TrEMBL record:
The active site is at C70, C180. Provides the (R)-glutamate required for cell wall biosynthesis. The lineage of its organism: Bacteria, Bacillati, Bacillota, Clostridia, Lachnospirales. Belongs to the aspartate/glutamate racemases family. Substrate binds at D7, S8, Y39, G40, N71, T72, T181, H182. Pathway: Cell wall biogenesis; peptidoglycan biosynthesis. This is Glutamate racemase. The keyword Heme does not apply. It comes from the Bacteria.
Length: 251
């Protein structure tokens, strides 16, 4: 089984890492469009062109299924892409529904990119599940830039997060949703800042469970033996997967 992964950059590696645990023997091809990252602060039509170009490339590599491991790309293009291609296409969605249902009496803070939070897909998701207006949203674009630049220094990242999270009365919140696949790299820093009762949620495991369900429903056989991994960084093949390994080691 050849599974394609795509993200605006290296954020989707946080999703891929879950796939490697749950489906360890498949063949994977990952495309990080880091030359054009971050998507979240760019005009929608510009980002759409990036997305279509990458997906066309991955499909030309004869993938059996595509995981769009990027909340921004999913919100902008997944609906149209499913009309164009006849392979299963799995997208990302912030774990808002789970958070709202789980935290019955508490507020929920969804963190993501500017573009994800502005998109109709996200707005409709919140409208559908948030009947009591308990969901708040916060854009954290700097985290994407930090991850792409391999900046994980605690002092710099924590300082940024403290400043962004300081205005909230955390006694009223039950969870923080990491609605960008770059953000889980910094989960431990969120945990250090936030009170113990606040859960930190992302959709990575749920996405890979969905991937496995789709493979099962299509009666697709799982791979066996050593898995094969191909990694493209801004369109250039990383022959020894050194970039991929560097980021996997941060998880």
């Amino acid at each position: 089984m050849k599974i394609g992964f795509f993200d605006s950059g290296i954020g989707g590696i946080t999703v891929l890492s879950e796939a490697l645990k749950m489906l360890p023997n498949e063949e994977y091809i990952y495309y990080a469009d880091s030359m054009n990252a971050p998507y979240g602060i760019k005009p929608k039509e510009v980002v759409k062109k990036y997305i279509y170009n990458v997906v066309e490339f991955l499909v030309s590599e004869d993938i059996d299924v595509l995981v769009i491991a990027c909340n921004t790309a999913t919100s902008i293009a997944v609906k149209e892409l499913r009309k164009i291609y006849d392979i299963p296409i799995i997208g990302m969605e912030p774990a808002v529904k789970y958070a709202v249902e789980h935290d019955k009496d508490m507020r929920v803070l969804v963190t993501a990119t500017d573009l994800t939070l502005k998109e109709e897909k996200y707005q409709k998701l919140v409208e559908r599940v948030d009947n009591e207006s308990r969901v708040d949203s916060l854009a954290l674009p700097k985290l994407v830039e930090y991850a792409e630049d391999f900046i994980f220094e605690k002092e710099e990242v924590v300082s940024y997060l403290r400043k962004q999270l300081e205005p909230f009365d955390w006694s009223k919140y039950g969870s923080v949703v990491l609605g960008c696949t770059h953000f889980p790299y910094y989960k431990e820093y969120f945990r250090e800042i936030l009170p113990g009762h606040v859960e930190i949620l992302d959709g990575n495991v749920g996405t890979i469970r969905h991937l496995k369900d789709i493979l099962d429903k299509n009666n697709r056989s799982y791979g066996s033996g050593d898995r094969k991994m191909t990694f493209y960084y801004s369109g250039i093949k990383d022959e020894d997967n050194s970039i991929l390994k560097k980021y996997l080691n941060k998880l």
